[in-house]
Amino acid sequence: KIVYCKSVIYFFTSINAIGQAFVDEVFGVLGIAHPKVQFQIENANSDVIFMIKRGVANRENLTNKIIFLPK
Predict the structure, then answer these.
(1) Which one of 12, 32, 51, 59 counts the least CB within 10 Å of its CB?
(2) Where is pLDDT greater, at 70 or 46?
(3) CA gyration radius for the chain?
(4) Is the pTM for the entire model greater than 0.70?
């Protein structure tokens, strides 16, 4: 369960794009439901990074919970 995790790592290898609904669900809903969990993003291309940043831009409580790891 995510309740017991301190961080969740998302691997975006071979993922070229994601939608706004995905960002809202994964980072918005889960991020609010689990305020102590940190999200780590690995192997994301520039389009995926853009969508994630755009989706959490107006949510101050989420922007510091997402870490983009270098490829």
Answers:
(1) 32
(2) 46
(3) 11
(4) yes
